[in-house]
Amino acid sequence: MSVSLKNTYGYVRVSTRDQNEDRQLIAMNELSIPKKNIFMDKQSGKDFERPQYKRLVKKLKPDDLLYIKSIDRLGRNYTEILEQWRILTKEKKTDIVVLDMPLLDTRRGKDLMGTFLSDIVLQVLSFVAENEHTNIRQRQAEGIAAAKARGVKFGRPPVPLPDNFHQVHQEWRGKRLTLNQAADACAMPVSTFYYKALQFENTT
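Given the sequence above, the corresponding structure tokens read:
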């Protein structure tokens, strides 16, 4: 059964840590998928709410065709990827093509053997995708730990103390200035001046 262009869709997912939307969009555009049929979610690593994906799934009908760039676009882990694949292919009866893995093309081999082979490939790739994410997180954690051990500082550099801080600090400790007056003299919030004063005293 031929699939008309209006029934062809693309799904793109990117996170703030994985900005590869251009690569995915280029692939979709090369397939001549209408822009209105390309759904894209952007999200942080903690947030997996995918409003565009949910909209897409509601629109899909039997024999529609969905393109995704790689298998990990369907979910965060092995279980989720397999569940979404089941929903799309079994419940929605939609065809899926994974561009990075031509073996995962449900238009081919719809007999029992073809389905069996696709399921095996899917399970292996889903496991590999989840394992790779785990390894990346582990390498990041190890890299940060190694950098800290070398003395690399993370976060914003500390703001230098104003030139008059030491003089104002002495006057405040000598009770010649109130805490509010001292903070005003250094152009700092009261809490910041007090915190900096304690830091200063602990290092002198």
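The beta strands are 8-15, 38-43, 65-68, 95-98. Try to locate this feature in the token string yourself.
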